[in-house]
Amino acid sequence: MPSRAPSTQQAVLAAAALLLVVHGLGRFIFTPLLPLLVSDGQFSTGQGASLATWNYIGYLLGALIAIRWHRPSQIHRSVPLALAVHCLSLIGLSLTNDLPSITALRLANGISNGLVFVMVPALVMEWLAARQRINLSGLIYLGVGAGLLISGLLANPPGLSLTAAERWWPAALLSLPLAAWGGWVMLRLETEATRRTHASPQAGRHSPLLDKQTRPLFWAYAGAGLGYILPMTFLPMIASIQLGNAHPMVHQSWLIVACTTLPAAWLWNHLGQRFGDQRALLLNYALQLASVVSALLLSGVWGVVLCSLLMGSSFLGAVLLTQRLGRNLQPHQGPRLSAALIALYSVTQLIGPWLAHEWLNRGGTLPETLWLGAGALVWSLFWTWRTPSAGGQSGTHDASQAPIKTNIA
To answer: DSSP string spanning 163-224?
Structure first.
C-alpha cells in the first residue's frame, strides 16, 4: 500500500465519488427507475414502494452499525466491505427478476449506503481537520448532487434498449471503477488516522453522545428528517394533484430539485465558513420552511417551482452543516456522533411517509400532509437556535483547530 498520503483535493474528490456511487447509483437511481421497472412488469407500484422502504431500513441499519464500528481499524475494514456489497448488490439486481431476491438485494444495498455515507465523510473530515482544512469538508457532498443528475441519465440511457433487470447494468458498471479508486484513497487516509489514534492517550475514551451541548442539535436534526422527506417524496404527486397528470411540472419538479442540489454543497460550505455553521444552519432551515410553505400556500405552478428550487438548494446543506457542527461540539468522537445523527435522521425519514399515510386514512389530502413538514422545520429552527455555536466562532474554524490527538477517538 502506498505510504504517501493523498492531496486534500484528491481526498475530497474520492469521498465525493463514493457518495455518488452509494447514494446516486444505489439509492437515488431507484426513483427514476421505478416507473420503468413497473412498466416492464418486473413488479407493481405497491411492491416498488415496499422495495424503497426496505432500502431505507437498510440505510438505517448501516448507520446504526456505524455507531458501533467507529474506530479507525473498524472503518478500515468496513468501507471496502460496504463498497463490495454495493457493487455486488447492483450486479445481482442486473441479473434477477425474482421479487424476494430483489428485496434482499435492496436491503443489502441500503446497509452499504448507510455505512459509507457515515464513515467516509467522517473519516475525511477528521483527516482534513488534522491539516487545518476542515473548511473543505462540505464539498464531499457534491457527490450527492452529481449523483442525482447522473442517476437520472443512467436510468434510461439514450441509445440503449434495456428492460427489467437489465436496467441496473449502467449503474453497476459505473460503480465498479469509482468504488475501487475511492476505496483505495480511503485506505491511504485510514492508515494515517490509525497511527495518530494509536499514539493518542485519549483513544477509546468517550463522553456521552447526548449532553447539554449536543442534545439541541439532535432534536433539530430529528425535525429536519421529517421536514425534508415529505416534499422530497410527494412533490411530483402533489404537482399532479394540483396541476393535472399531463402538466410538464409533474416530471420537471424532480429535475429542478436535482439541478439545484448540485451546487448546494459548495454554497452551504461557503456560508458555513463565512457566518459560522450554526447561523448558516438557521438560514438553511428557514429556507426549507419557506419551501414547504410555498407548496402549501401558493397554488399552481409557482408553488411547485418554489418548493423545488428552495428544497433542492437547501436540504443537503443541513446534512453537511449539522455534521460539522456536531464534530465541533464533540471533536473527540466525530465518526460516532456522525453515525448517531444520520441514524436519527433515517428514523424520522421513515416516520414521515407513515404519518402521511395515517393522515390520508383519516380523510386528509396529500398536499395537507406538508403541514407536518412545516411544523417539523419550525421545531428544527427552534432547537438550532438553542444549539451552541462553539463560542460564537465559525464551526469550521474551531474544528480545524481541534488537537490532532483527539481525532477519531
So the answer is: -GGGGGHHHHHHHHHHHHHHHHHHHHHHHHHHHHHHT-TTTT----SSSTTTHHHHHHHHHH
For the chain, list the domains and their CATH numbers.
Answer: 8-198 (1.20.1250.20), 215-397 (1.20.1250.20)
Question: With bands split at pLDDT 50, 70 and 90, how would you rate the model's confidence at 408?
Answer: very low
Q: Find out whether 331 and 129 touch, Cβ atoms under 8 Å.
A: yes
Output phi, psi for 71, to 5 deg: -80, 155
Q: Is the pLDDT of residue 10 over 90?
A: yes
Percent of the chain with pLDDT over 90: 43
CB 277 within 8 A of CB 395: yes
Helix axes 215-243, 249-261, angle to 10 degrees: 150
Q: How far apart are the C-alpha atoms of 281 and 287, rounded to whole Å?
A: 10
pLDDT for residue 80: 94
CA-closest candidate to residue 397, choices 306, 282, 272: 272
| 271 Cβ contact list (under 8 Å, min separation 6) | 280, 283, 317
pLDDT at residue number 190: 57
**Do 139 and 265 meet the contact criterion of CB atoms below 8 Å apart?**
yes
Q: Given its phi and psi angles, is residue 213 left (phi above 0), alpha (psi -120 to 50 degrees) or beta?
A: alpha
State pLDDT tens for residues 218-248: 999 999 999 988 888 778 778 878 888 788 8
Q: Could you give the CA distance from residue 53 to residue 330 in angstroms, rounded to a whole number?
A: 32
